[in-house]
User: What shape does this take?
Amino acid sequence: MSYQKEKEAESTPMMTKHPNGGPHHHSNGHLPSKDSGPNYNLMTDSPVPTSKEKEAAEYEGGDENTERGNWSNHMDFLLSCVSYAVGLGNVWRFPYLCYSNGGGAFLIPYTIMLFFAGMPLFFLELSFGQYSSRGPISVWQSVPLLRGVGYGMVVTSGIVAIYYNVIITYCIFYMFKSMTSSLPWVGCDHSWNTEYCSELVTDCLTQGGIVTENNACIAVGNLSDSERTQYNVTTDGNIDLYMDPLHAQRSRPSEEFYRHGVLADSGDALNFGYIVWQLALCLLLAWTIVCISLAKGVKSSGKVVYFTAIFPYIVLTILLVRGLTLEGSWDGILFFITPRFELLANPKVWKDAAVQIFFSLSASWGGLITLSSYNKFHNNCMRDAIIVPILNCATSIFAGFVIFSIMGFMAHTLDKEVKDVVQEQFGLAFIAYPEAVAQLPISPLWAFLFFFMLITLGFGSQICIVETVVTSITDELPRRLRKWKPLVLFVYCAFAFCVGLLCVTQAGNYWVVLMDKYAADFSLLIFGLSECIALGWLYGSKKFINDIRTMVGDRIVDAKAFLWWPINWCALTPAVLSFVLFFSWMSWDFPMAGDYVYPPVCHVFGWFLVVLSLVWIPAVMIYEVGYRATGSFTERLREAVSSRESWGPDLPEHRREAVDTHKANGTEFPGNPSYKSTNGLEMQNMSTIQSV
Assistant: This one.
């Protein structure tokens, strides 16, 4: 394009409509004439697509960013976010927290934390990734001083993906075991059952006998007088007052199946024993599914989530309808929702609500940044940041009704209180619920549906976690690795599978629990707090708002209700996260696996995982200030918090919009307008446009 043509293009009056409302003024500020013809992109000497052409391209699934790729359509992205956020914790963690922290009253702090912590961080991360079209490491070109947060997110996601797929492996194993006419966790006549299986007592009583302190079943008629007195058996053989002398040592068949039939539990975290080959094959299948689902990037994963996001709701609805028809189900539901307001005075309840919101929405893992980075630039990410968190929380409540309707039935069948049959997390998913399902007619069908639902929930989150790791690696070295992304994916999946084999040994479950307690606890809270400080204060909330304005338009950003977001980013959300962090540290205790106390070396490994995630923050700070920057300490610090030249939208036309938007709204575009983007297009004439 000649210099004369450039000058003519600059003098041509142009104004195009912003895709999300409001006119977008070009730098000369004039209106177009009716017959001025098509607008031309100053960087590529090609016509700027009209709004109809853009809509047609979006409808057809055309990519704005042809090198990096985009979602085929908005629904792919939305369902991916839902699938990522709605995971296993919605089914087995939230119901337990709700009943143990005040029942229905827990919804008060839960909702408050949603609006003050969950949604603000969700919107921040969606905007962050969508604006820059970069992964969770490369986005920190905006505030290089805190680039270590991005590395920490990726390391945490990489660790979590290893053990999270092991949990999915358990679900796959249970699903296969459900394909039978008789569920294997029913009865005490299996090879994995012990002499203390509780069903042995039931069988003995049914046959007219009692179990003695020697764990022997003796017919009532064969008892001596002293034995009748000892075991509260009347002379006429009445055993209503009989109590099993070994009651404290009994274990349910479902628990023995989980411990011995699935895990082959060695009883010690340091006694690895052998690899359970059935679990190893299920683990291989799990990683194969993940690898295939991501083989073609967001184009393939965007289609998989149509199933992983929608199918669980179908199964939950079926289970709820079935559960409500069972005797005792309403006792379980009332136990779930009955408010105990006195518990709200306990700070732990508020801390649990904040932690559940934070982890349930998958904030600060880097996954939301990754998913939104494949959005088209003018997607209304604020709308998505409202829809997905609310749907996620509604799913948790819905799952609570499903779980407790079945728990109520189980309590009624066993003649126990509901509180006596409810267990937390793994216990609920692999012990209590399978036992409850076993009481249903056609129990194998319900067991299959339940575990298939858990598998789809798990894969929905797992696929996004792995995509975060792979995208971050390829975005750091785009020219070398982006075309080899499938190979990077395969190498990571193979590596994670090999490491995961340690988690399917006889001691594997102890390490899964340990990694779950340490790997994604304090680190994620610190990452979220760092994001708020970085974008709210160091980068500047006004600049960040204008970044969002470039994407969604003036109409949304200038609305008074929009002020809610920057107020949270700058003050309220950091305050909430600081409270949760402080209270977590003050009340912290060494984690346990049920009643098992970990040896010190395990806690050393756990803290190693924490350090491995967090060490990047101070390390990068030292590198940026002490090595990369120059001048006095103040000058070095100022340079470390200043955006890199490459920061900003990835495509030339969007970068130009950003320059105009910042200038029109009182801020300076933080990147270099003339930066040459990774797609090879020279960002020409941007400095001229900015100066006009």
